[in-house]
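Why should sequence recovery work at all? Because a backbone constrains its sequence more than one might expect. Tight turns favour small or flexible residues, buried strands favour hydrophobic ones, and helices have their own preferences. The token representation captures these environments compactly. In the example below, the structure is given first.
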């Protein structure tokens, strides 16, 4: 017990040190990176010095910080997506502009998701990864039972039924996150509510302007809420990384090293493909990545596409020259639709690992086309917070007639991969916004060509007014 109290005292001192860094004016991205390093160091030290009982007792309290932070991220997802999409639609001049932007943005997101699925298939096949080679322990079996209980809500849906399930019957129920596809339901509701605002503005200009003023006030309020939560990110990241490192079994991580390496290779390939697509439409890929790397760093450490939405929008508008309407659409849609890492690569890799155990030829064109199609469609409505990749797998694998238990066998390394997947998700949404803006001829080339300033960081972005 004394060792646990000592560990908690040290953890509290580290939190105080993070708070001192925040007060000294250090940017948020650097605070988060510092919290990440503190968490990794604390986890390794605990692994080296203490027995399992002491580590478990310490992590029980440390996890209170980490789990609390994750719950706060989940709390802001629905309000953030609702006001971001509603605000973007309400600022459109007409429905035609909305149609062009949404079609191009969604098209790029879904196209890159399909490509990411193919990348996941071929990288996994090249590494020769097989589900039969994985070992099940007590922790994995418990996780498998939990996943089996969750899959009942989506496993019995056919693809047409899955599409229909996206349309909200009760948007207020979706705002509670009651259904697995709640996020996409909120997106659809926000789009229609924004269209209603546009028609009201056209028919009754004075009343429409008052409604838009209310939307802008609501958006400002929610963004303030998001900023409050984001300021807690360094503490949440430190707690989460402490749990990940201290609670991990080194042997388990080593045994799953092939999957870890294959995942990072697939993610790296997709970053290169994003750069190629940007180059194809005339965007300097090197300049693009130079400008967005602070946002990617925040996404990597926070593991939340949704929490990165404000930084995503800010980077697109002030660094990449993307109009605010397109930036809001791509950032919000990218946090719920077409996530290249969580909804594209991950379920594809699981399917390829399971296929040999069921006598399926991974390279069979029909099976491959079906898998890519299902993954692309299932990428709708995957929430941009931790656990989104698992939810995507719960949709894809049952539709393909495969068990979901494999996702439980990777629990030891999930957080290590999820950080890179989240960065890829966010980069995919910024790529979609940049390409859409470029194709529509709306990119401000002067902003894109402008060199970076010393204070152009996520931390600086948080201090700017809306």
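From this structural description, the recovered sequence reads:
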């Amino acid at each position: 017990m004394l060792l646990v109290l000592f560990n908690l005292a040290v953890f509290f001192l580290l939190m105080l040190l993070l708070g001192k860094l925040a007060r000294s004016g250090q940017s948020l991205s650097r605070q988060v990176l510092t919290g990440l390093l503190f968490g990794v160091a604390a986890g390794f030290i605990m692994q080296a010095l203490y027995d399992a009982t002491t580590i478990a007792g310490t992590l029980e309290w440390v996890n209170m910080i980490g789990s609390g932070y994750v719950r706060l991220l989940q709390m802001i997802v629905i309000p953030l997506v609702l006001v971001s999409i509603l605000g973007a639609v309400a600022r459109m001049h007409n429905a035609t502009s909305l149609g062009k932007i949404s079609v191009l943005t969604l098209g790029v997101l879904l196209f890159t998701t399909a490509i990411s699925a193919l990348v996941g298939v071929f990288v996994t096949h090249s590494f020769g990864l097989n589900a039969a080679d994985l070992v099940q322990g007590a922790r994995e079996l418990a996780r498998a039972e939990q996943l089996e209980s969750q899959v009942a809500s989506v496993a019995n849906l056919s693809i047409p039924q899955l599409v229909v399930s996206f349309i909200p019957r009760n948007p207020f129920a979706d705002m509670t996150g009651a259904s697995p596809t709640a996020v996409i339901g909120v997106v659809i509701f926000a789009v229609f509510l924004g269209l209603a605002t546009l028609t009201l503005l056209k028919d009754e200009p004075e009343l429409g302007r008052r409604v838009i003023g209310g939307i802008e006030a609501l958006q400002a309020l929610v963004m303030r809420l998001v900023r409050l939560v984001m300021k807690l990110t360094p503490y949440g990241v430190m707690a989460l990384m402490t749990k990940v490192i201290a609670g991990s079994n080194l042997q388990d991580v080593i045994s799953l090293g092939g999957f870890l390496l294959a995942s990072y290779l697939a993610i790296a390939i997709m970053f290169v493909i994003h750069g190629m697509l940007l180059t194809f439409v005339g965007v300097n890929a090197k300049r693009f990545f130079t400008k967005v790397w602070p946002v990617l760093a925040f996404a990597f450490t926070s593991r939340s596409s949704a929490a990165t939405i404000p930084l995503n929008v800010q980077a697109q508008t002030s660094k990449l020259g993307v109009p605010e309407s397109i930036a809001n659409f791509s950032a919000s849609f990218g946090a719920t639709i077409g996530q290249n890492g969580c909804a594209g690569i991950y379920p594809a890799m699981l399917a390829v690992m399971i296929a040999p155990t069921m006598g399926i030829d991974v390279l069979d064109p029909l099976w491959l086309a079906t898998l890519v199609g299902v993954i692309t469609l299932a990428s709708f409505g995957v929430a941009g917070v931790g656990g989104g990749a698992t939810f995507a797998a719960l949709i894809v694998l049952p539709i393909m007639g495969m068990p979901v238990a494999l996702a439980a066998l990777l629990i030891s390394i999930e957080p290590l991969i999820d950080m890179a997947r989240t960065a890829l998700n966010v980069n995919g949404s910024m790529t979609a916004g940049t390409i859409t803006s470029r194709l529509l001829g709306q990119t401000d080339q002067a902003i894109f060509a402008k060199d970076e300033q010393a204070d152009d960081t996520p931390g600086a972005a948080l201090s700017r007014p809306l």
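A few observations help interpret the result. The two ends are 48 Å apart (CA to CA).
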